[in-house]
């Protein structure tokens, strides 16, 4: 008998036709959904689409690192809201991490007073809604003295009921980009340069330092009835950051405590048997194992912190969701605004 071998085209078709069928089916469902949405909007006299992003927004964002005016289009206002959200995340995540690790180590302390004090701090913070904590911090910060009698907890740091005034660096971005480029170049060329790679990166950084313009420091000062100079985040920004930092630091503290206790006792005893010092046991045995255990729940807390930043609308801070809600209210294009919000959440989840 003659054996008939299947054609490679038939094998490829059998392998890929289920995926192609699912793709075509989902595309057809999406097309039907879009046609239904367009017909519904047309029946109600609504012109859908994302063309509104290029129209003047008509509202002002009170605080943003990205300067935006009411005459700017909607997409610039949304970008300013995104910058506000990223600013909150970049400030709150490191602070929550440091505070959470400190509370977690205190919770593990052999001193009963330190351990019980940390437990008394952590338990109420975990069992209180974060929105209520934001209101509490906002009310407390509003009771601070006015700008003329601002507190000075640190040199050139002023705290009042208008917010926090910090020294500002102007012209730092080119240096940061140059340093990042030098580190990346040294990492890519580490096999060719060998031990000279760090020195090459340092030389590139020094060259950029010599060629780039200088960095200026703007210090806040009391002048007249207010403050001038520096970076002056609002009281809403301060309340949001403090509330998120304190709330999520309580969860990170329990993550640190659980991760350290998850280290097997045998590994610790093995490190001690190798004549390692307590610091050596902590560095080479406990820390690597605990970090591996704590990383997934810690990443979840970072994502939850960024998501909880949407509660800023309750205290008047204009982050991304607040700006999108304002755009939906003005244009009536709820579907397009929700799509933008969903895209934002999808990027966070990734």
TrEMBL record:
It is found in: Cell membrane. Keywords: Amino-acid transport, Membrane, Transmembrane, Transmembrane helix, Transport. It comes from the Bacteria. GO terms for cellular component: plasma membrane. One of its GO terms (biological process) is amino acid transport. Pfam families: BPD_transp_1 (PF00528). InterPro entries: ArtM/GltK/GlnP/TcyL/YhdX-like, MetI-like, MetI-like_sf. Residues 82-350 form the ABC transmembrane type-1 domain. The chain crosses the membrane at residues 74-106, 164-187, 199-217, 237-256. It is a multi-pass membrane protein. PANTHER family: AMINO-ACID ABC TRANSPORTER PERMEASE PROTEIN YHDX-RELATED, MEMBRANE COMPONENT OF AMINO ACID ABC TRANSPORTER. Belongs to the binding-protein-dependent transport system permease family. HisMQ subfamily. This is ABC transmembrane type-1 domain-containing protein.
